[in-house]
Design a protein that fits this description.
By secondary structure, this protein is α/β, with parallel strands linked by helices. It is built from 11 helices and 17 strands. Bound molecules: 5-S-methyl-1-O-phosphono-5-thio-D-ribulose.
Amino acid sequence: MRIRIDEKIVDIKAVWLKDSERGVIRMIDQRYLPWKLRYYDSDSVEKTFYAIKNFVVRGAPTIGGTAALGAYQAILEASHRPNKFKSVFKERIEFLKKARPTAYNLFHALDTIYSYVMDLVESGEALSSIIRLTRERALEYIEKEILDKNRKIGEYGEKILEDGSKVLTHCNAGALAAVDIGTATAPIYYAHEKGKKIIVYVDETRPWLQGARLTAWELHQQGIETYVISDNAAGYLMWLGEIDVVIVGADRIAVNGDTANKIGTYKLALAAHDNGVPFYVAAPTTTIDPTLSSGREIPIEERSEDEIHFVYGELNTGELSVVRITPKGVRARNPVFDVTPSYLITGFITELGIIKPSEIRRVVSQG
Ligand code: MRU
């Protein structure tokens, strides 16, 4: 992602390994965007867990990429206790899995690195080479399982966009959410690079405002014409005929094609269906959970009600501040994902091409 820092254009990712020997992970701290560009450094599994749980980083593929690097930190921590290497490593991996429940990429990344390490251990590899190889595997995971897939999603998805297309998106399924490039934004960026004019409507995405804060920031930085809309405006704009296509990301896809994504996605899909607007989910196949037959089985995270009661933002003075928007004493509910039934989904833009919901089962069976 190219962003402007102090009048310079810098190419930056949402997360990377800053110090490979010490296992220091650097992340763009998404809690401060779009107001301030700050970084969060983690040199331990504990801090990486904190970062994923508390939205320093977020978005399914970025969570997966951060977790892959966290698994490398787990190896370093386990290596300090060689007699208990296997049990410490397993305990650290299981701990990271508890950071957030819905995004399948977290589990995919941790299971991938875990079984890779177990194979190395079984084959009698020396500790020093297990450390080196795990680091290489974690970096390769980000490159192959995330970035390469995002690029493919961009290549396939670009074809559904025409010069002048008006796209609606929800939450942030952009570079910040997918290490770089994004999933839902990848077709937009590829179309933009090909010289197509793309206009993007961004749902603000209450309560955490990932759309208003992050997607709008990202798209604006890339020079794409962007309009933030209230979540409630989406149906009306579709009814007016002002939206050509909806593209969203995904946190977990069941085998029948039911898809968990940011709360509000289901209502958006209903409005798209009612208005004949194509509704696409852009996601890598690493978001498909092969163990779940339907969306009813997807664990949905419910976060603190404070995210509903309080809004965070920048005052005219430039200071960051928190304000309460609900009456004191009133309770709130805060499920942060919902499930869109597969019949509302036109297609999945994946690294394998654009596939129908009914084809997810085939993708899973082909491994
Ligand atoms: O709670 P978040 O911000 O992690 O939720 C993110 C989303 O719902 C995204 O749409 C999804 O992870 C896809 S990211 C490419």
